[in-house]
Amino acid sequence: MDSKVQSVRLKKKDYSLQQARSIVRELGYKDTYYGKSPFTQTDNWYRFRQFNPDKYKQYIIRKKKGIQYVIGV
Q: How far apart are CA 46 and CA 12, in angstroms?
C-alpha cells in the first residue's frame, strides 16, 4: 500500500480558519470531509482530514513550511 496524506494540519496561532482553508485548497487538498464540518480543531491546530484514519495502521508526521502532514504508511 502506498503512503498517502491522511490529514493536513495548520497552527491556529499562525492562521485564521479562512486562511487555513484557502491554503489547504491551494495545496491541492480537500477542506471538507464527506460533506461534514470542513475541519476539526484542537486547542492548537486546524486539522483537515483527507480520508478515514482507519485505512492505515501507522502514521508519520512531516513538516514543510510550518504545515504538518499526517502520512499513512
A: 6
Interatomic CA distance for residues 2 and 4, integer angstroms: 6
Measured distance between the N- and C-terminal CA atoms of the chain, rounded to whole angstroms? 8
Q: What string of pLDDT tens digits covers the 73 residues of the chain?
A: 457 999 999 999 999 999 999 999 999 999 887 666 667 888 999 999 998 888 888 999 999 999 999 999 8
pTM of the model: 0.84
Q: Is 17 helix (H, G, I), strand (E, B) or coil?
A: helix
Q: What is the DSSP letter of 56?
A: -
Q: Three-class SS of residue 72?
A: strand
